[in-house]
Amino acid sequence: MNSVVRLCCCVNRVGSGNPQFCGESICDLLEESGNLNADLMLFPRLALCPPSSGALLHSAAVAHLCEEQLDQIRSASAQNHSCIIVGLVKNIYGKNTDVIAVVQDGEVVCYLPAAGYGPLCSVDPVEGYYTDDRNGLLRSWDTLFHCSQLSFCICPCPVSDLALHLPRLVKTGCQAVLVPCYEPAYAETAQKELRLVQSLSETFGIAIAFVRGGQGDTSSPLAFQGHAAICECGQMLANHTGESFEDGTHALESFAFCRDLDCDILSASQRFSAVRQPDIILRETEGKKGLMRTVHSDPFLPCEGKEAEEYLQTLFDFQVQSLVARVINTGLHHLVLGVSGGLDSTLALLVSHQALRQLELPDKNLIAITMPGFGTSDRTYYNALSLISALGAENRDISIKASVLQHFEDIGHDPSLRDVTYENAQARERTQILMDVANSCRGLVVGTGDMSEDALGWCTFGGDHLANYNVNVCLTKTMIRKMVTFLCGRFEENVGSILRDIVDTPVSPELLPPDESGKIQQKTEDILGSYDLHDFFLYYLLRYNFPPRKLYYYACLAFSGIFSSSYILEKLKVFLNRFFAGQFKRSCSPDSADITEVCLSRYPIPSDASAQALLSDLAEIR
To answer: How far, in Å, CA of 132 to CA of 425, rounded?
Structure first.
C-alpha cells in the first residue's frame, strides 16, 4: 500500500504568551502519535504562541522561546520521523514574523511565511516570497512538497480565504493542500468551513486538510475553538472540533487523529497535471499498519437516510428523463419491454410507466410482455403479471417453450442437454419477440440489463444484450435492489407489496427448470459470487483504476467479518476474467445515457484484451 500517505491532524493546547506550555503540548502529541507512523503531522498556525498573545507577539523574548520550543520539536522529529508542520513567531531581519516551519528527521526543512489577517495582524506579515534567502530555508507559498507519491502545498490562510489561493496552487500539480490556520470561532464557523472545504475539494479533485488552533485559548475579546478536518475529492474522511469527541475529551484538551490519503484516488481525480518538479522531497515514514480511512462496502451509495433517498430519487428521475427524451426525439410513442418478475425488468417497467405519465401518454402505450420459459417460476411469473396489471400497462403473455423446442429441432440440439445453447436460445427467442412486437406497433424496445451484468458478461449476446434503448446500464445490481426498495414507498400499497416480494426474490436468469417444489434453483450469486463484492470491485476499477492487489486489500477491509479473504480472492479472479472476456458484448451495446460518474463507457478496452496482466498482480497472494 505504498500509494497511501498517512496524515495526522493535531490541535495542541495553547497558553497566551507561553511558548513553553504550547511546545510541551505539541511534544506530548508527537509522543502519543508516534506509533501511528504518520507521514505528515499538521499543527495550527501560531501553534507555539497564539494570536491572542497580543503585544507579546512582538517581544524578542517570546520569539526566542518559540525558537527554543522549535528545537525541542526538531529533536523529537529525529525519533518520530514524520514531517511536522507547525506555526510559530520567528525573528527575521529584526522583526517578529508569523511563519510555518517544516521539520523532519531532526532538521528544519524550510520556513513559509504566513499572511496576517483581520484582528489577528499582531505580528509582521510577509506576503508571498522572501527575497533574501541567505540560509536556504526561506520559501514561498508556492513551494511544492513531495512525500511518497503525494505532491502537496502548504497554505497558511483562513479557511474562508482558501478559494482565493487554490486556483494558483493546483496549477503546480499539487494533489493536496494543507491549511494551518488560527482564527476566531463563531457558532456557524465549523459548518461553513466544512461546506467550503468539501466543495473545493470536489471541484479541484484534491485533498484538503485544515487545522484551526484554539484549544484552551482566551475567551476575551474573541472566542477560539480547535477544529480539524480532512476531505479527499469531496469525501469527508474526518472532522473533529474540540467538543466533538465521544471519548470524554475535554474541550480544552489537545487532540489528534490520523487518516490515510490514497494517492491513486487523488491521481485519478486530479484536474491539473504536474507542471514542475517538486521543490522539496520528504522522506516517507515506514512501518504503517492497517488503513486509517473508512472503506464502504457499497461505494456506489455510501450515504444513508435522507441523503441516500434524495440521491435515489434523483437517479430515478434521470432514468425517466432520458427515456422521455428518447421517445420525443424518435417519435415512437409505444414502449415495449420484457418483464420477468426480477429486479432489473421491474425497475425498467417503473421507469417506462413514469416516462409515459410525464409524456401524458396512455398507460396502455406500455406493452409489457411476459415470456415464460423452461425456468420460469410461479413466484416471478405471477409477480410480473400482478405488477403489470397494477400499473395499467398492456400485457401480452407469450410462452416461448414451443418456439424454442422447434428451434432445437431445427438446429439439431437435444433439449435434455442443458448447456449454454439451451440457455441462450431462450434469451434470443425473447429478444426476437420484443423486437418484432416493437416493429408492429412502432414502439421502442426498452432494455433492462444492468451495469453489473454488463461488467461480468452475464447476458446473452444477441439476446437480452440487445435493445433500442437501455435505462439501467449505469446502475449496478446492488443499486437496483436499493432503488426498487426505495420505490416501494413511492407507489400505491398494492404496487409496493409486489415490489417488496420482488426485492426478496433470489436473483436468477431462470433459464434452467425450477426444483421439484417449483423454487428457483439457478441462483446467479451461487454461480458468480456476491454482487456486493463484484460491484465493489467494479467501482474501484472504473473510478480509480485500482490494481488488483489493492482491490483485494480494500475489499478485505470493507467486507471484514462478512466474507473470508480466500472467498474475496477467488471472486476477484472471477471478476477480472469475466470482465475482460465480456468486453466484446460491451463493444456493441445498445444506446443509453451516462447518468452516473462511474460507468462502463468511461473504461474503454479492446474486445480481445487479456486479463493476464492484472491477474498476475494477484499471483503472490494466498
So the answer is: 80
